Every structure is written in C-alpha cells, then in structure tokens.
C-alpha cells in the first residue's frame, strides 16, 4: 500500500521532516525483494558493516549490509562480483540518500539452485529419508573412523589434527574423493559405499565452507541415498555453521564444522582416562569395604565357635543328668509299687474268709509288678545305652582313633581355616596316641566355591 503524500499547503517543511516523509513513503511502498547487479565501491568498515554499490548497465544504487547480517555470509564480497541481494528499500535521512538495506546475498544464478535444493529436500523428507527414528547412534568408543573427503582439503587437516589431539588411540581410514565439480556427487556416494564396507565404526563426511554452488555435490540425491543406505553411522561436517546441505539432513548427526564433526565422532581420551580412574577408585573402595565386612563377620563367627572338647563335656553332663533322673524315676516307681503291694497285702489280710485266694491274687500281682519293673528297667537301660553310644561317637578320642588329628593354634583354639594363622606360627597337633608340635611354613588359601 502506498502512503499518500501530504496535501499541498502553504506550510514550510524542514529538511528533516521532508526526508522522514520520503523514507516512510519508500519503505512502505516496496516489500522485501531480490535485486541483482554487480558490486562496486565495496568497503568493509571497521565496525563490521559492509557498504557497496549495486549496478547494472543503466543505473546503480547504494547498499548497506549491517554487521549482524554480514557475519553469516560465509564468503567475502569482491568488486565486480555478480550477486543477488535480498533487501529492503530505505532512505538515509542525514544525507538524503536512497539506499538498500541488504539482509542476504547469493551469487547470481544461485536462485535456481536454491529452488532445486528445496524441491529435493521436500521429496526426500516425504520419503522418510530424514526421519528421526532411522538415525543411528554413534559408537561410544570407536576403534577406527572413516573420513570421506578430498585428500587436499583443509578440512581434512582440521579433522586429523582434532582427532590426534583428542583421541590419538583411534585409527583413521581415508576414502578420498573430489568434493566439488562435475561428477563429484556420484564419487562421494561411491566413497561412502566403500567406507560402509570397511571395518570402521563410523564415517565423517566433511568439507570446508563455500557458496551454494561450491557445496552442491553434497545436495545431490545420490549422496543422500548413499548416506541412508550406509550400514555405519554418518556424521556430516560440511561447510560453516550457517551452511546446510541435503547431506546434513540425511546424516545420522550434523556437525556445524569439520572440526566439530571430529569432536563428535570420538570421545576425548583424557576424559576417558579420568572416568576410568574414578571407576577404579570406586571399585577399590567397594572391595575394601566388602573385605572389611567379611573380616567382621569372620570375627563374629569365631567368637561363637565352641571347642569340641567343651561341647563334648557339656553333652556328657547333660547325659549324666538324664541318667540320674532315670534312676530316680525307677526308684520312685518301685517304691510306689511296693507301697501299693503293701496296701494290697493289708487289704488281703483283712479280707476273709477268702484269704487263700487273696494271697494268690497278691502273688500274681507281685509277679506282674516284678515283670513290669524289670521290663521298664530294661527299656530305660537300653535308652541309656543308646545315649551312651551317641555320646561315645562325639568323643574326640574316638575321632582321633580313626586317623584324624586335632590342630590347635598358638592361642590353644582348634583351627578350622588356614587363613587364621601366619607362616612361622606354632601349632599343637593331637593324635590318638600322643601329640606333635609343628611350625607353619606355608599357608594355602582354600579354593573359592563356584
């Protein structure tokens, strides 16, 4: 929409007001547009702003590109270059000069290339070639990396220098290929296929910065499909941070520069060593802590261990007490039966006139009592004999008689493990007949259980 000029009147405008009106009219009348021409009168100011003229055979116009826009250009302007500038029409009020405020610049003729770039990107994206779920993870600890680039490229030196500084343990395989010019795309695709068949763990596809035309080989469909078909993860480090290619979208990882691609491909060796040292320290502390716990448990178990002789003495005392209780029970039972027999005898004496029958009954009861007492005594004696036999089996002397030996340490306690004594310690070995004094010459640790 055009801004209507102010109505004519007799008021007097200042120069500043007039220039402001002109600027408002120009900026509102012209949208953001592409303007083509040749660069002349080029000046790079110390502030970072770029000033130049854009001309053709019939006219020229002043242009300014502010520093924030110029820093993202990626290449240096030169007088005589044919360019296409995306700019806003502006008016510099202090000097009353008409000029263009440039936001982006491309080399002349790259408009068609950019359209082809967008069309191919949309096509491959619709096919799912750029889908996130098909991106493969990078190896955490690669042993060998493949580099696909030109053998003369400065980017190759940057990548090799970075890898040598960060990860000198990683081996490198170079798959050289042209990265610019006729047929470069197909040769890059062939190099990627060869790298995918190698014993490498990942691939770095890299090239230095340049114009859209310079980087066009990485925008070809063959390269994108070769990346997607590659069995190894691919890192794309093409151009500068502001450069984007089809290869960047197809790759498993996109790095802003070749150097960044090298940093992304391999972990820093020093950090790995530091991490390994930390894990080793943690493992050592855990081992020492577990060993201390086991030592405490061993001491606790040792405190609960009872000497076999002491245990045998306890069992013998218990058996003696059982024998005493058995004898007392037998005597008490016999006394009770005797009392009962006496009572029956008195009752028999009092029962008349069947005294003879009573005497016979008493005799039978006496015999039954005698038989019951003898049977009970035999049962108790058999039980006592069984307990005595069990006690005899626990007798250390009986164990020694079978060829075993009882080994006591310097503290007099019986030894159950070779780990409780040290070489040079004195031992006392008890046999079935006599005893031996011995000195430890070697300690053999018990085999660990599976």
UniProtKB/TrEMBL annotation:
Example GO BP: DNA catabolic process
Chief place of localization: cytoplasm
Broad class of enzyme this protein falls into: hydrolase
Catalytic activity reported: Exonucleolytic cleavage in either 5'- to 3'- or 3'- to 5'-direction to yield nucleoside 5'-phosphates
Residue stretches making up the OB-fold nucleic acid binding domain: 13-106
Domain Exonuclease VII large subunit C-terminal: 129-438
Localization (cell): Cytoplasm
Any GO CC annotation of this UniProt entry: cytoplasm
Pfam family, one: tRNA_anti_2
CDD domains registered for this protein in UniProt: ExoVII_LU_OBF (cd04489)
Assigned EC number: 3.1.11.6
GO molecular function: exodeoxyribonuclease VII activity; nucleic acid binding
Matches recorded under InterPro entries: Exonuc_VII_L (IPR003753), Exonuc_VII_lsu_C (IPR020579), OB-fold_nuc-bd_dom (IPR025824)
Cytoplasm found in the keyword field: yes
UniProt KW keywords: Cytoplasm, Exonuclease, Hydrolase, Nuclease
Function according to Swiss-Prot or TrEMBL: Bidirectionally degrades single-stranded DNA into large acid-insoluble oligonucleotides, which are then degraded further into small acid-soluble oligonucleotides.
Subunit (UniProt): Heterooligomer composed of large and small subunits.
HAMAP family: Exonuc_7_L (MF_00378)
Family classification: Belongs to the XseA family.
Protein name, as recorded: Exodeoxyribonuclease 7 large subunit
UniProt source species: Azonexus fungiphilus
